[in-house]
Structure formats: structure tokens, C-alpha cells
User: Fold this.
Amino acid sequence: MTFLRQLAKSAGFGSVVGVGVMLIAFTLIDFSGWWTARTLSNVIHFTSILGLIAIGQALVIISKEIDLSVGSVYGLAGIAFITLEPSLGVPGSMAAALAIAALCGLAQGILVVWGGLPSMIVTLGGLFTFRGVIYVWTGGSVRNFSTDAREHWLTRLFGGEFLGFENALLWMLLMLAVLSVVLKLTRFGNHLLATGGSAESAESRGVRIDRVKIATFVICSLMAGFAGIITLADRPQTHVTIGDLLELEAISAAVIGGCLLSGGRGSLIGAVLGAFIVTSFRYELIALGAPSSWFITFVGIVLIVAVIFNQKLARWAGHNV
Amino acid sequence: MPDAKPLIQVKNLNLYFGNFHALKNVSVDFHAGELVGLVGDNGAGKTTLIRVLCGIHKPTDGEVYFDGKLVKEFHPKLAIDQGIETIQQSVGLCDNLSIARNFYLGREPVRKVLGIPLLDFAKMRGEATKVIRAFGLRDNVSADDEVERLSGGERQSVKIGRAVEFKNRVVIMDEPTNHLSVREREHVNELALQLRNQGLLVIYITHDIFQVHKLADRIVIMENGEKIEDASTDKMSAEALEEVIRQGGRVVEKMES
Ligand SMILES: Nc1ncnc2c1ncn2[C@@H]1O[C@H](COP(=O)(O)OP(=O)(O)OP(=O)(O)O)[C@@H](O)[C@H]1O
Ligand SMILES: [Mg+2]
Assistant:
């Protein structure tokens, strides 16, 4: 019991339980539909994309802010990647797309920190602004990659497969490992956790909470932009609505994964498991032949159940939440 | 005897919170090797004054000199880098972090692993454990425990232990003995004296004028954002000072007119 309680103290534990329950349920309900190569490969692919975005979102939530713009940043970076490719080449357009994403995060972070504005409002503005930029820039239609660009080694590095695993999955796991180390084992991570836990206390100890928050917004936007690049490197055709509503899935994934909106607590592994849960529901509903519009309803239900469960779990483990 | 040249010099300091005039033309000197008691009613502006000194608040006008140099930028990080350690009244610990992480917050020691600077947990844990044991925290409290489970006194002990551990040139204590039992209180007072004897400047805020009179070289009294008294403890008795606080500065005005 003490051991379980100790385990439950870590923020991602609820999502581990959630994944277990979900897998058992899907196996019982729809064994033949769920355990198919097609469903699983879709689930793994999209978990990787959503996972990347959810990791960045989790960091922002841990800092006690929120980023509603990630869906638009994801779309903008992805579209910048293929739209700029003819003039800049694959490496150039990839770098430009990441730079655009970083700028989105930087601008929003600065407005939140130095403008003293709530991140909910600033990033809601970002959501519309960046989406608007996509429409204006592309005139509503997006071209596809040339065959040369598709075959470019960099495109293959982010979009292809390696030993039977999608590169998207490998990149997501790599970023998960790196950022988990950053969060738990570095000075920046300690400052980030402290900023989310009590910004006033952190600042009184000399933590530059302004820089910490801005850096976190930049990382979050970079992760969203990276996810956009990976998506298009893998399937280089798209539409201006790419990434619509993705911010809500990313926030749901982070919250299902144990991030508390009150800040200071959260787990990146949890966020990825949350992304896995959200994505699994999407493809299991498809496998069941349910209308795709049901998906949003299910995400809503899972989110609410997860929040209640995570909160009970945290209280049981002894946290004051 | 304290140095003639003040370590911290505050000149005509004014601070407004919106329309509220929290510090009114305050001028005061603090010397190295001095223990100064800062007293006054609730809301007098004691915490606000020391929050300027430790970089949390930027004054609306007036000057602060540290070691003879005009302070131009106010941020807690800069104050800490200058050697000013502060035990804050209501902030200073992050509930979601362990004692060890809180202890080193803002100055975490790192160790290179494959060239990457990672937190040196062994050192953080070791030092923090030493200090919390010295402060008599129960044995079942470990440096890995989150601060959220600590009692008020245990939190205060962590804050004081941390300030003393990193003491440098100035230690500011804002009601340090709050939440502490009699024995811990004596320990803190002893530490304050020790720091002064080591040549540090100690600024000690309290409501207990009798207790601080025994420790301090000098007492500064504030009232409604103003400094109304600044007297060495061998010139004025605790009773006389208490009367000044009770009268809210009117005694002083009467004597002057
Ligand atoms: N951030 C702030 N914004 C607005 N008003 C403030 C702020 N901080 C302090 N004040 C006000 O300034 C006045 C002085 O407060 P301060 O905390 O300095 O008092 P104090 O002398 O430390 O009192 P106590 O003994 O109760 O701690 C109070 O009236 C308080 O309400
Ligand atoms: Mg106070």
C-alpha cells in the first residue's frame, strides 16, 4: 500500500492505470477490430504526432500557463515547410519552419510575461492569428512536395521508417527522453517546476521566472512546429485546416496524463500516454464503424473522468490539490 | 563597532502600490557588523521596505546604495548575487518541490554527466539533510520530502537554515520566529547574533520589541510607511521604544516641537 501510494505520487501514474483499463476494455469489446495492424499503426503514428505536441503543452501547463495556439503553430510550420521548399530546399525550409514556430512561441511568451496578459487570451489570439496567416499566405490551397523533395534524405529522416518503426515514433520517444531529463534533472527544470509551483517564491530565490516562462512557450511552439514538419515529411499533402482543434486534443492529453492546471505538477510520459488514450479512442471508434463525430464526445468524457480520477489519486497520495 | 560607511544606505525612498503610499520618504543606514531590529505595527511597511532591499519591489523614487554604489536595477537575483539573503515572511518555499530542491532553488549545484550539467542530487540532499537535522526537524522528515507536508515551524526552519547556510554579507529576517517553539526561537536568536559577530549585517523584523531589544544594536521603528524612530539600544530602553510604537510617533513629534 505504501509502495502504491509512493507510485501514485508521481503525476503520470493515473494515465498508466488509464492505459491499462482502456486496453482491457478495447480487447473485450472489439478484439478483432482493435488488435489489427491497421488500427495499431494509425494509433502509433498519430500518438507520436500528438505526443510531441502534448509534451510541449505539458511543460507550459507545469509552468502554470496554457497554450491554445499549438494547433495553428503546428499547421503553420507544416505548411511553411512545404510552401518554402521550392525556394529554400528541404533543409532550408525545415529550418525556416522551425524558426517560424519559435517566433510564434517567443512573441506569445513575451506578451504573457512582459505584457502581464493571461496566456489563455494571448494564445487564443495566437490560435486565430496564425491560422489567419496560413489562409492569407496560401490563398486557401496548399501545394504538395515534388518527388525530389519527397526523396530527400532529410524528409526520409523525419518521415520514413527505421527497422520497421516509424521515424515519427522514434523522434517522439527521443524528445520525450530529452525533455524528461531537462524537466527533472536540470537547473532549468527545477526553475520551471518552481515557477509553476509558486512563481512568487521562485522569484524571491532569484529564479528569472520571466525567462523561464518565455523559454517554455518557445519550446512548446517548437514541439508543435516539429510535429507539423514530421507530419508533412511523412505524408506531404495537406490542407489549410491542418491542425484544427489539435490544441484541445493536446491539452486533453496533458491533463489526462496528470498535468494539473494549477501548475507545478505533471509528467511528460503521462502526457504521451494521454495522447495514446485520446488517439486510441479516435481509431477504435473508426474500427467500430461509429460516426467520426462521436470522437469529440468521447474525448470530452475521457477528459472529465481522467481529471476526477487524477485528482482523487493525488489526494490519496497526499498532495494538497 | 560598526563601520562608519554604511553597507546599505536608503535615501528618501518612496513606494506606491497604485495610489497607496506604502513607503513615505524613508531614509535609513545599515552597517556591516550591525544587528538592526525593525519594528512597528501591522501594515507599517516593514516587509515592504526589506522587499525593496532584496530586490522584489522597485521603489517609485529615492535611492538605495549598496556598498557605496547606487542600485539601478531591482531583481531578487541581483540582490542574492550581491550577498543579500532574505528569510521572507510569506514566500520562499515551493510546495511542489522537495526540501532539497527548495534549499538550492536558484543556485542549484550541477555535475557534468557526459558533458551535460545535471543537478547534483547527492550534494543537494546531503547539505539539506545536515541543515534540517541541525534545526531539529523530526527524523521522519527527509530532504526528499515535498515541502507541502511540512508544518509551519518546519517550513520556517528550512527557510532560516537555508539563509544561514548561504549567508554572505547581509541576512534579512522577516519575523523569523513566527511558528517556532521556545527552543527553536532561542536558536534563531542565537544564530542572528552569531551572524552579526561574524561581521554580517542582520536586519531583524519582529513585533516583540523586548526580545529584539536584547539582541539588537539599533532599533528602527516604522509607522504608516514612515520611519518614526531610529535609536541605538543603549540610548533607549525597550519600554521607551514600546511607548513610541504605542503612540504611533506622536511622542517624537511632541518632543521635537
Ligand atoms: N503588493 C502590494 N500591493 C498593494 N499593497 C500592498 C502590497 N504589499 C503590501 N501592501 C500594503 O502595504 C502596507 C504595508 O505592508 P507591509 O507588508 O510592509 O507591512 P508590515 O509592516 O510588514 O506588517 P506586518 O507586521 O503585518 O507584516 C499594508 O497596508 C499592505 O496592505
Ligand atoms: Mg511584514
